[in-house]
Amino acid sequence: MGSPISRLGRKVAIVVHSGGMDSSMCLALAAEEFLPENVLSLSFFYGQKHALELESAEKICRDWKIDHRVHDLSPILGQFPNALVGNAAPTCSEGDRSPHTVVIGRNGLMLHVAGIYAHYLGARCLYLGSNADDGNYPDCAEGYLNLIEQTIRIDISQPDFQLRRPLAQMDKLATMHLAFRMGILEYLLTETVTCYEGIKNEGCGECLACKLKNRGILKFLEEEPSFTPPYIVSKEALLV
Predict the structure, then answer these.
(1) Which of 33, 84, 95, 238 is the most exposed place for a label (fewest CB within 10 A)?
(2) b (16+ CB within 10 A) / e for 184-211
(3) Average pLDDT score over residue span 27-41
(4) Which pLDDT belongs to residue 93?
């Protein structure tokens, strides 16, 4: 998918871009710092059931005039049972704290592949949209990602290469405040796909991703009542 890597030209930053809110926020930050033409959005197909998030990533990149490429990891990750890539377990369940939505090795594999892109495109940093709500995912842990950063530095012989995680200390509420200050909150809520079931806008309302986002919206509206969200969120989203 996408253009051959030789046609992409040199880039300064590469963003691992799922089409969700957090990775799209990182894309906006990278484009703001380095300019859109110097950024690559790198999405991954790993056998996920719903293609809507990749379509979302593609549309966002068109709107923001950022090069976008999709790399296929399904021959590896698509072989293993998981709620996001098969029918191993439901993605929506009461009390879900993420165990059956973990795709083992996904972030590590994606980041190493992104590091190879960085080497050939001359990029000096990667962006990953992990945040304070991702603590139950082992491949979002700070220690794990620090090791990945060190490994990529060795792989591509760039001792100052950076794995940037600008949202690492932010929950959804803080991320929404940042997007609001940048003037893109309504756009992100409209165009990104966060739901594990691949449902746009308010999502299924039951999976952990939807609950975190919808609680963030309701809390944000308490602090910024002048903001009008593009869809209505029930206060039931605040229930654990």
Answers:
(1) 95
(2) bbebbbebbbbbbbbbbbbbebbbbbbb
(3) 99
(4) 47
Structure tokens, 25: 């926020």
How does pLDDT run across 48-66, given as a tens digit for each residue?
877 899 999 999 999 999 9
Phi, psi of 126 (to 5 degrees): -115, 150
Distance CA 212, CA 119 (A): 35
**Cα torsion at 20, 24, 26, 29 (round to 10°)?**
-160
What pLDDT, on a 0 to 100 scale, did the predictor assign at position 82? 62
Phi, psi angle pair for 65, to nearest 5°: 60, 50
| C-alpha–C-alpha distance, residues 208 and 222, integer Å | 21
Dihedral over alpha carbons 81, 129, 190, 44 (to 10 degrees): -50
In the chain, what is the greatest distance between 2 CA atoms, to the nearest angstrom? Answer: 50
CA angle 223, 94, 131 (to 5 degrees): 45
CATH code, 5-171 = 3.40.50.620
Q: Residue 235 — pLDDT band, cuts 50, 70, 90?
A: confident
The sign one gets for the Cα dihedral 116, 65, 185, 195 is: negative
**More confident position, 152 or 208:** 152
Taking the mean position of all CA atoms in its chain, how far away is CA 16?
7
Task: Return the pLDDT at 135.
Answer: 66
